[in-house]
């Protein structure tokens, strides 16, 4: 489960858009992540998807009328407005945006929005012309000025058959935004955390590369968890097929030299660096300008040269500038703890996360041992990478306290 969502009450407003069916997936994902999800709907929304769908997914009563009472006889929109930790309206039609901007309250969703003091996240969905109309854009600007967070629509195929901007944002992007908003004021607020992720690739020719098996999952989990705790996160990533999280500054760094440059550029403004990337130790001394053809030879010889040691360079920078908390990773096939201790000392790290190679790459699970500069050793049981990320950030948050 996602820590920032656990125990939170998320109020989901659904309005009369064809994209209303996607709100069911959003409600399901939030519920499975550990949140309590209450749903309010406009009458127009019930023409696209029934309240029963949401009640089955959330196991909660759904309010569809501004005058409706909850089973305990409380006024529905008032009770839900006051117990919500966040109010998410997805999808939000152009008509709903206009009502919210002008303070109208003639349906369950708009009345709840007027009564709640919870943070407001609005996810519009409509035809391109409606989204781009000056009136809609003025309403959006008014809502943003009041503190609402807008998850802007994406481009693609629309219900009318046209193609353009107006599609409801992806559910994962909406969840990212909810997590970031709920994380405001967390224990890493006002901290800048730089995280590296993924494997670097070193070109042999325009087609081929030297690479490794890193998926980037651990680094991405760390970046998302830090964002959820209020940090400003810079994610520097090598090659990965993972979706780029919202609410995070993302920098692509395909090679070791690209990553070194990005890290050294980011750390002067950072409070902590977490080097979760699998950086190639060597690269071809010369990359061919054209694709190397197979030909008739049975072998191909490459001359390799050492890549820069990013952590060593960070240590040298730290010694001459200011204190920064540095966390490294050690993925080993043998002598795990001995090799991790050597790296901890030689790279001037504050913490090293040691994990055996079979659990380090590709899997959603990880098994790790945390070794601190001061000598403490914490052996952790196998756990999801999201949970390991929280353990590492717990340690960091404690040491970054003012």
Descriptors for this entry?
globular; alpha/beta; 2 domains; eight-stranded mixed sheet; 35% helix; 23% strand; 402 residues; Rossmann fold; 22 strands
Describe the fold and architecture:
The protein has 402 residues and is of the alpha/beta class. The chain has two domains: 180 residues, Rossmann fold; 208 residues, CoaB-like (Rossmann fold). It has 14 helices and 22 strands. An eight-stranded mixed sheet has the order 13-12-9-14-17-18-20-21, with helices on both faces. Helix 1 packs parallel to helix 2. The model has no long low-confidence stretch (mean pLDDT 94).
Describe the secondary-structure layout.
Elements: E1 9-14, H1 20-32, E2 36-41, H2 51-58, E3 62-63, H3 76-83, E4 86-92, H4 94-102, H5 108-115, E5 120-124, H6 128-132, H7 134-145, E6 149-150, E7 154-157, E8 163-167, H8 171-182, E9 192-197, E10 202-203, E11 209-210, H9 217-228, E12 232-237, E13 249-252, H10 256-266, E14 272-275, E15 282-284, E16 304-306, H11 310-320, E17 325-332, H12 336-346, E18 351-356, H13 357-360, E19 365-366, E20 369-372, E21 377-379, E22 383-384, H14 385-399
Parallel strand pairs: 1-2, 1-4, 2-3, 4-5, 5-6, 9-12, 9-14, 12-13, 14-17, 17-18
Antiparallel strand pairs: 7-8, 10-11, 15-16, 18-20, 19-22, 20-21
């Amino acid at each position: 489960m996602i820590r920032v969502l656990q125990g939170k009450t998320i109020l989901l407003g659904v309005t009369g858009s064809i994209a209303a069916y996607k709100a069911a997936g959003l409600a399901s994902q939030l519920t499975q992540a550990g949140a309590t999800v209450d749903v309010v709907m406009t009458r127009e929304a019930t023409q696209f998807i029934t309240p029963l769908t949401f009640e089955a997914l959330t196991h909660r009563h759904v309010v569809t009328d501004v005058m409706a009472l909850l089973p305990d006889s409380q006024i529905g929109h008032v009770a839900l407005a006051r117990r919500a930790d966040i109010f998410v309206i997805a999808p939000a039609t152009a008509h709903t945006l206009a009502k919210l901007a002008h303070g109208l309250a003639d349906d369950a969703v708009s009345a709840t929005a007027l009564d709640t003091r919870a943070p407001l996240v609005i996810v519009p969905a409509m035809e391109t012309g409606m989204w781009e109309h000056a009136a809609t854009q003025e309403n959006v600007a008014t809502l943003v000025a009041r503190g609402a967070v807008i998850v802007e629509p994406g481009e693609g195929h629309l219900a009318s058959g046209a193609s353009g901007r107006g599609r409801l944002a992806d559910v994962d992007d909406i969840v990212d935004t909810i997590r970031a908003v709920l994380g405001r004021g967390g224990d890493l607020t006002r901290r800048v955390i730089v995280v590296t992720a993924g494997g670097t690739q070193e070109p042999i020719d325009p087609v081929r590369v030297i690479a490794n098996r890193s998926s980037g999952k651990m680094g991405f989990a760390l970046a998302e968890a830090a964002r959820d705790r209020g940090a400003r996160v810079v994610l520097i990533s090598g090659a990965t097929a993972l979706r780029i999280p919202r609410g995070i500054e993302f920098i692509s760094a395909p090679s070791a030299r690209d990553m070194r440059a990005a890290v050294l550029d980011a750390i002067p403004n950072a409070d902590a660096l977490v080097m979760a990337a699998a950086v190639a130790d060597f690269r071809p001394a010369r990359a061919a300008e054209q694709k190397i053809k197979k030909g008739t030879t049975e072998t191909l010889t490459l001359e390799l040269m050492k890549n820069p040691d990013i952590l060593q360079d960070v240590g040298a920078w730290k010694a001459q500038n200011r204190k920064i908390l540095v966390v490294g990773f050690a993925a080993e096939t043998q002598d795990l703890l001995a090799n991790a201790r050597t790296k901890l000392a030689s790279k001037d790290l504050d913490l090293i996360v040691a994990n055996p190679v079979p659990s380090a790459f590709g899997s959603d699970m990880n098994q790790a041992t945390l070794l601190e500069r001061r000598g403490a050793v914490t052996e952790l049981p196998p756990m999801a990478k999201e949970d390991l990320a929280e353990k590492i950030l717990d340690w960091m948050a404690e040491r970054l306290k003012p």
